Structure formats: structure tokens, C-alpha cells
From TrEMBL:
Acts on leucine, isoleucine and valine. Pathway: Amino-acid biosynthesis; L-valine biosynthesis; L-valine from pyruvate: step 4/4; Amino-acid biosynthesis; L-leucine biosynthesis; L-leucine from 3-methyl-2-oxobutanoate: step 4/4; Amino-acid biosynthesis; L-isoleucine biosynthesis; L-isoleucine from 2-oxobutanoate: step 4/4. Belongs to the class-IV pyridoxal-phosphate-dependent aminotransferase family. Signal peptide: none annotated. This is branched-chain-amino-acid transaminase. Its EC number is 2.6.1.42. It catalyses: L-isoleucine + 2-oxoglutarate = (S)-3-methyl-2-oxopentanoate + L-glutamate; L-leucine + 2-oxoglutarate = 4-methyl-2-oxopentanoate + L-glutamate; L-valine + 2-oxoglutarate = 3-methyl-2-oxobutanoate + L-glutamate. Keywords: Aminotransferase, Transferase. One of its GO terms (molecular function) is transaminase activity.
Length: 308
């Protein structure tokens, strides 16, 4: 399938979707009621970001997306180079500098009455919106209050967490657990009581200058990977293994990682303050994360053309 010519800059001010092989305004964002992506969460996706007009680690996001597609028996009618062009096109047409850029593939709509997923034609969607933060700036400054929910993340034996998925009922319900108790956001555990992840982020603990994060039951976040690499570069001791709830409760520092904000320091665990906030290790990783946004090796500038 071919893709349309490069769209004009800011053709659709404020964001752009790519549906049915064409760029369109956000008002045309829709999926069929009969798409299994909607009725069965039979979908995979990825979210990259642009910062000051440049994609951050786009290759890593595309690698993860293509790997997820393969694991899900899904396919898109575009090559990697075409996918890149579409994502750039969405940002360009949406007139965005700091963007949230999603690529989505659903199972699609099988012929009426058919129950065999192989009979469905997979559907590809992409869109670019203004950058989305996991928490508002005010919350970040005040110190995000993280609730450790007793709710379990869907088992990795059922749904492969390394495939970025829409199985979010556990995560969304854990957010209500947090709100009901007066906290800002939440993370969930696994069957053994280890901390896994939260709605849109991985979780890290720092104890005695050493960094700990879960090795299982989590999406291998691209921001998580960036932090793991930074620990190596900055000589910060790192442990990737089971992360017991008590390790989080007794940590000196806790932070989240997400494309929606990079390294996000946590101010309180279940209402209990974590002084100092933000802690020294978190601060080094936060600064390292944002410094990489000026490193050409991690960036893919959007072509805004002569109009940009
Ligand atoms: C469940 C879950 N875990 C972790 C993450 C963090 O991944 P990344 O750093 O690639 O944004 C996300 C991102 O949306 C997520 O949805």
C-alpha cells in the first residue's frame, strides 16, 4: 500500500490522524464498532514522542512495535521506512513540536459471523497529539503520591507484557484504588506480591545509592531502557530482578519512567513522604535522560520543510 505525499505543515492544527491510508484531522479519529481491537482488545500499539521537533529513540519504538506485531500474528501493509514517514507526516501535519505519536494495529473486522481471527483484515492507525505527561507539572513539583495497589497485573502467562497492549482494566481500576484513598496514581503487583508497573510507566526504587527495578511482568519501556543504560554510563549500581512491595516502601527514592515525562520522581508512597525529594540518584538520571534529547544519536528531527 502506498502512502500519500508529505502533508503540508500544520494542515490539521493541534494534531493529525492517519486512517485508511490518509492523513486527516483529529475529528476523523474513529474505529469500527465491530473491530476486534475494540471488542476483544485484540490490538497492539506503541507510542513515541517528539521533543522540540525531534523524535526521541524512534528506532527503538518501531523495533518494539514490529516485534509486538509478530508476537500477536498481526501485520501492517507498510515497511519500516514507510511507517517512519507516516509518523513524521502526522507530526508535521499536526504542526507539533512536543508530540505524543501513536502507531496502532487492530485485528480488524472479520467477515460477518466468522470467528476465525485469520479471516480479519488487520487495520493500521497512527496519530500525533500534543505531548502527554503522566502527571501535571504541579503534581510533579509537589511530589506525586504513588499508591501500591493490591490489585494484580494480568498474568504474563495470559498476556505477554512485553507486547504493548490495551489490557488496562487492572491498571485503570488501580487508579480508582488510588483516587479513593486520596493518592495520585498507582502501581500493581504480580501473583508473588512483587511490584510490576503502573498505568503507562515502569517503577524504580533507589536504596543506598543502588537502583532496583522489576525484571518480569512488565513492558520493557523504552524510557526504562534509557535509565538502565544511563546507570551503566553513570556507574550507578543496578539490580533488575523481582521488586518486592517492601523494597518500594522502604526505598530512599522512588521514580517512574515513561515516554510521558521520562524520569518522574515520586514524592510520597501511600501518603508517606520520601525525603529528600527529588533524591540525588533520581536527579542524576533525570538530568541524564533529558540530556540525551540533545544527542543526535537518539534523535530523528521532524522534517517541517521550508514552511516549518
Ligand atoms: C503498561 C506500561 N508500562 C510501561 C510503560 C512505559 O513504557 P515507555 O517507557 O516505552 O513509554 C508504558 C507506556 O505507556 C505502559 O503502558
Amino acid at each position: 500500500m502506498s502512502i500519500p505525499a508529505t502533508p503540508p505543515v500544520a494542515q490539521f492544527e493541534g494534531g493529525c490522524v492517519f486512517i485508511d491510508g490518509a492523513y486527516a484531522p483529529l475529528s476523523e479519529a474513529k474505529v469500527s464498532l465491530f473491530d476486534w481491537g475494540f471488542t476483544r482488545s485484540d490490538v497492539t500499539y506503541d507510542v513515541a514522542t517528539t521533543w522540540k521537533g525531534s523524535f526521541f529513540r524512534l528506532d527503538a519504538h518501531m523495533d518494539r512495535f514490529f516485534s509486538s506485531l509478530q508476537k500477536m500474528h498481526l501485520a501492517i501493509p507498510y515497511s519500516r521506512a514507510e511507517l517512519r514517514e507516516i509518523l513524521h507526516g502526522c507530526v508535521r501535519a499536526g504542526g507539533l513540536q512536543d508530540g505524543y505519536v501513536a502507531m496502532v494495529c487492530t485485528r480488524g473486522v472479520p467477515p460477518r459471523g466468522a470467528r476465525d481471527p485469520r479471516m480479519a483484515q488487520n487495520r493500521f492507525y497512527a496519530y500525533a497529539l500534543p505531548y502527554v505527561w503522566i502527571a501535571s507539572r504541579e503534581k510533579q513539583l509537589a511530589g506525586i503520591d504513588l499508591h501500591i495497589s493490591e490489585r494484580q497485573r494480568i498474568s504474563p502467562a495470559s498476556v505477554d507484557p512485553t507486547v504493548k497492549n490495551y489490557h488496562w482494566i487492572d491498571l485503570v481500576q488501580s487508579m480508582f484504588d488510588a483516587y479513593d484513598r486520596g493518592h495520585d496514581t498507582s502501581c500493581v503487583v504480580d501473583a508473588e506480591g512483587n511490584v510490576t508497573e503502573g498505568p503507562g510507566f515502569n517503577v524504580f526504587a533507589v536504596k543506598d545509592g543502588q537502583v532496583f527495578t522489576a525484571d518480569r511482568g512488565v513492558l520493557e519501556g523504552i524510557s526504562r531502557r534509557t535509565v538502565l543504560e544511563l546507570c551503566g554510563k553513570l556507574d550507578i549500581p543496578l539490580h533488575v530482578g523481582p521488586l518486592p512491595v517492601d523494597a518500594l516502601r522502604n526505598a530512599d527514592e522512588v521514580f517512574l519512567t515513561s515516554s510521558g515525562g521520562g524520569v518522574l520522581p515520586i514524592g510520597k508512597i501511600d501518603g508517606k513522604p520520601l525525603p529528600p525529594f527529588p533524591g540525588p540518584v533520581t536527579t542524576r538520571l533525570y538530568e541524564g535522560y533529558w540530556a540525551l534529547h540533545d544527542d543526535p544519536a537518539f534523535n530523528d528531527p521532524v522534517d517541517y520543510g521550508s514552511e516549518g
